Amino acid sequence: MGYKIKDHFAKTAGVEPVVALSSKEQFLFFVEEHRGLVWGGILVVIVFIGGLVTFNWLSQQQREEAWTRQGRAQHVYLDRPLDDVEKGKANIQKASKMFQDILEQYPATASAKVSSFLYGNSLMEAGNYQSAIDAYTSFVQEHAQDHILIGLVQQRLGLAQLLNGNREAAVNAFDAVLENPHALNKDQVLFELAKLAESEGKTDEAVTFYTRLIQTFPLSPFSTEANLRVKVLAPEETQESEESMTMTDSEVDDKTVEDQEDQNTDSEHSPEEEE
Q1: Are 177 and 154 in contact, with CB atoms under 8 Å apart?
Q2: Domain residue limits, the chain
């Protein structure tokens, strides 16, 4: 009886072997199949990076140009010959226009913020109080995060409101400075409020502001003037304050003498005498 040997190779000859590809080979295979898509993505990235670099370069150029023009405008603004009043007025008007141009052409730059403040000042110097009020108000709305400079702008806003005949709005602007914990010009604002009260014949209110200025900011240059005004407006209070200070010094001297006497008395009682 014969045996038939099975040929396993003959049955599996038609099956292709499975080949495992590495990650690198799979990536290259994908690139080969999607060559157009890959090159398109690379081109988009290059364009994006180039656009970003160009944008940053143009922004830097704008910032530098804005600062240059702001410096020129500020130079014109400060150029006011004492012997030529008309030229000074003309320079203020010219500078005002230059500041306005900077605000329109470079609104997003840091120099635009400075130009906005100086633009309001130039309008105020030219006697255009309502336009100055608008400029200061716009500054406060757009740069509320700049707490220090906001205090100075609000002070100028208060002065513009006063010159424009709106006392209530002026006081509100001054109060806003006093309520700002970051403001560095509170002493000057207190002085302005005191002068305002004094000009209206409100002596008690003026003295209150002057006294607050003296007590809160004793080293302020406005404190010296405030002391003089208090002596003029309320000499009785000044005299009482000086007498109180004198009495206090006298009491201190008396206390010192009493302590010295007690110390001498204690030293006279030696340990031997106590025995």
Answers
A1: yes
A2: 186-248
Residue recorded with tokens 């009043």 = 85
Which structure tokens are listed for 141? 């709305």
Q: pLDDT by residue (tens digit) across 177-199?
A: 999 999 999 999 999 999 999 99
Backbone φ and ψ for 85, nearest 5 degrees, come out as: -65, -40
Instruction: Tell me the whole-structure pTM to 2 decimals.
Output: 0.67
How far is Cα 151 from Cα 146, in angstroms, rounded to an integer? 9
197-227 tens-digit pLDDT: 999 999 999 999 999 999 999 999 999 999 9
Report how far apart, in Å, the C-alpha atoms of 90 and of each of 85, 118, 142, 188, 254 are.
9, 16, 29, 30, 68
* Number of Cβ atoms within 10 Å of the Cβ of 121: 21
Task: Identify the CATH number of the domain defined by range 186-248.
Answer: 1.20.58
Q: What is the DSSP string of 237-260?
A: HHHHHHHHHHHHHHHHHHHHHHHH
